[in-house]
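Handover notes (outgoing to incoming on-call)

Open items:
1. protein acetyllysine N-acetyltransferase: sequence verified, structure written out, both below. Nothing else pending on this one.
2. Nothing else urgent.
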Amino acid sequence: MTSRTLVAVLTGAGISTDSGIPDYRGPNGLWQRDPAAQDLVTIGPYLADPEVRRRAWLLRRDGGALRAEPNAGHRALVELDAKLPMRVLTQNVDGLHQKAGLRDSRVLELHGTARRVRCMDCEFTCPTERALERVAAGEADPPCPDCGGILRPATVMFGEALDPVVLERAAKIAQLCDVFVAVGSSLQVHPAAGLVGVAVEAGARLIVVNAEPTPYDELAEQVVRDPISTALPALVATLTG
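protein acetyllysine N-acetyltransferase structure tokens:
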């Protein structure tokens, strides 16, 4: 690798499981344990059913995602950033890349962030912790304090489209990178997963780090099945060596 090599890293839920945040689709994923939990992150049921919103707020309060700490996989990407031009394109909404030390300019959050909430009806937004304080005070489904509208996470929920500006920026990075690393993603959720094809078609080397097979494995120069918290630091050492 040279100092001018651009590395793009697409991260999915698997990079955060060692931080105590369960993935959705894996063998021990949230939806395997509780199929009804999919409603909590799907826009239609969330807007239509106050009970779904109440359960979603309890999940945010008790799930521990906002209290989670970065693991060795997140820290390895900080080390990569110190040595090579890189960008993280993340499907995650947990903010752990930034918490590990990556600057906001290095991270493109394809699916938004769970660290803020916003109103469906006006422009109100605030940190999620502030809304959770109202839940702790007894508001099971806290409305917008400005207009009374429904508060929802500042994420792209299932059933919603990605921000086209964000997607365009991600596609540009995929087109320009020399190496594309997909980490901890099933590569089944589009259009984010399609960034892999964009990178490969533009000539990038593809490396897949994931415990389970993905639809793009046969396009990869290297497929790593080892646990991400050990595999990613080793891969970063190879890329920067």
